[in-house]
Amino acid sequence: MPTLEFPGPPATNGYTHAVVVGAGSRIVHTSGQVAVDERGDVPDGWEAQTRLVFRNLETVLAAAGAGWADVVKLTIFVTGVDELPTVRRVRDEFVDVGRPPASSLVRVAGLVRPDLLIEVEAVAAI
User: Fold this and answer.
1) Is residue 83 part of a domain?
2) Within 10 Å of residue 85's Cβ, how many Cβ atoms?
3) Does residue 50 lie in a domain region?
4) Is 42 domain-assigned?
5) 2 burial class (0-12, 13-18, 19+ CB within 10 angstroms)?
6) Which of 35, 21, 18 is nearest to 124 (CA)?
7) Which residues are bridge partners to 102 per DSSP?
8) Of 77, 76, 62, 73, nearest to 124 (Cα)?
9) Number of domains composing the chain
10) pLDDT per position as a tens digit, 64-100
11) Mean pLDDT of the chain
12) Residue-number span of the structural domain to which 111 is assigned
């Protein structure tokens, strides 16, 4: 999907200000994915949780017929912002850093389980 280059907001840190989705594209909206594995376990720490969240998201996208190249928007919910460099580094293992999706990051008081640190939802255009 093409990204928009325009005067205005300064250059971004790993995301695109806007993405244009062409006519005829199928749009996939995922639910928020958290760091819960097949056994219901949650790993410790930001890096492990972030990586599992993105792997879980990858599985959901694939089930819908989409992949990371199709992702046009991420919404990331975090319980703290001290580990944002870790979150960005792990995210960049999955997204196309040359053409990153639009993105929002929201700091929240908590997620559905107290041991969860991050939740991510995606919008993909196929």
Assistant:
1) yes
2) 9
3) yes
4) yes
5) exposed
6) 21
7) 73
8) 73
9) 1
10) 999 999 999 999 999 999 999 999 999 999 999 998 9
11) 89
12) 27-125
Q: Which helix (H) or strand (E) holds 85?
A: helix 84-91
Is residue 34 within a helix (H) or strand (E), and if so which, with residue range? strand 33-34
DSSP 55: H
Question: What's the CATH number where 112 sits?
Answer: 3.30.1330.40
Which amino acid does the sequence have at 123?
V
Is there a domain that residue 112 lies in?
yes
Residues 6+ apart with CB under 8 A from 74: 15, 91, 95, 101, 102, 103, 104, 120, 121, 122, 123
> Residue 44: what pLDDT?
97
Burial class (CB in 10 A: 0-12, 13-18, 19+), 39: exposed
How many other C-beta atoms lie within 10 A of the C-beta of residue 23?
Answer: 4
